[in-house]
């Protein structure tokens, strides 16, 4: 029987299921709530195409960045509704103006995060904002391939592993394909996400369904963003991110996908033209020139990415910076999603009928050693900020 990559390395990109000529691979959820391929051996003809397109088995080369920028869209209304500086929307609008198509992640009517495409600026709006759950690819890779062959300009945006999966699935480069990856901390379990939504729904919305979650709800300063939950009858529940159990468990990797522990695709390895993330530490890097509503970190990995960025220069406020200056403030750039020490114990209890938010908070309670480590990290961070500020002032 055909053997796919090791489960621990599988990022769930769906390239294998998308390529199988027999349609014998389905993507199914495991007990933790992560999607993996499952092969029907009775239909398999051993063609090995699934392994040929698997990004976890492909040889990889890291990209040498051609430039790093601090940037934001000049339109503040867009920046406010984007996670950081709204770079995604700048690129999407450009592609739409060329009669192209944009692929991104949005909520479906059951609050699953799924991929689909958009041909208009109005439809692109649903992709705006980070959703901290792994997005389901469904049949988007086949759809992209079809559009590329028809000569349509395609912008595909997503996590580095999903971009790597698309590239290996396509098996050849296309001049009309543009790709933008997000800096990626890792993705949490979809099962935990739905359990958490159930808790919020009962606790704050009297059982009414949730119709939207804004992970980065910005009021005046993006650095103090909150989470906003919206119910189908338009009630709203806001919570500081430091008090939202799901967000805390995500950040502390209590229920991250196993492949994120040794991510093979970050930092341009996926082949993405641009890598886009948050420019944390903006006040140290740009002084008071950053946008209070959000500033993006943009790493250019290809000539095409640089050309594309320059073509949109009139819509962007952009400053060239040193990648090394941004690194200390953004763990997603260089750290792996090391599982929390209570991950196994969390998953042993998650189906026991307990309130998942209570369980998350219990599991995250830190012991003395961890508290000491956290304080040490805070001090290192503070010292690094002070050092940068001094260097910036001298320069
Ligand atoms: C799971 C995840 C983890 C992240 N971790 C970090 C991090 O550690 N450090 C950091 O600097 N930045 C991280 N980001 C990226 C950051 O939050 C912004 O998405 C990015 O800076 C783009 O912001 P924007 O303002 O340009 O546009 P936005 O309008 O915010 O762009 C949203 C873009 O993200 C895509 N997207 C949203 N949710 C998903 C999803 N679940 N899966 C795939 N694509 C998605 C949309 O399709 C769209 O292309 C992460 C994003 C995600 C989705
Ligand atoms: S070997 Fe071929 S037929 Fe079998 S699962 Fe893989 S792609 Fe499908
Ligand atoms: S192609 Fe993607 S989903 Fe399939 S085995 Fe490889 S990593 Fe997993
Ligand atoms: S950390 Fe790596 S493997 Fe995990 S979702 Fe992000 S890109 Fe994919």
TrEMBL record:
<dbReference type="InterPro" id="IPR007525">
    <property type="entry name" value="FrhB_FdhB_C"/>
</dbReference>
<feature type="domain" description="4Fe-4S ferredoxin-type">
    <location>
        <begin position="35"/>
        <end position="64"/>
    </location>
</feature>
<keyword id="KW-0408">Iron</keyword>
<keyword id="KW-0411">Iron-sulfur</keyword>
<protein>
    <submittedName>
        <fullName>Coenzyme F420 hydrogenase/dehydrogenase, beta subunit C-terminal domain</fullName>
    </submittedName>
</protein>
<dbReference type="InterPro" id="IPR017896">
    <property type="entry name" value="4Fe4S_Fe-S-bd"/>
</dbReference>
<keyword id="KW-0479">Metal-binding</keyword>
<dbReference type="Pfam" id="PF12838">
    <property type="entry name" value="Fer4_7"/>
</dbReference>
<dbReference type="InterPro" id="IPR017900">
    <property type="entry name" value="4Fe4S_Fe_S_CS"/>
</dbReference>
<dbReference type="InterPro" id="IPR052977">
    <property type="entry name" value="Polyferredoxin-like_ET"/>
</dbReference>
<feature type="domain" description="4Fe-4S ferredoxin-type">
    <location>
        <begin position="1"/>
        <end position="30"/>
    </location>
</feature>
<dbReference type="Pfam" id="PF04432">
    <property type="entry name" value="FrhB_FdhB_C"/>
</dbReference>
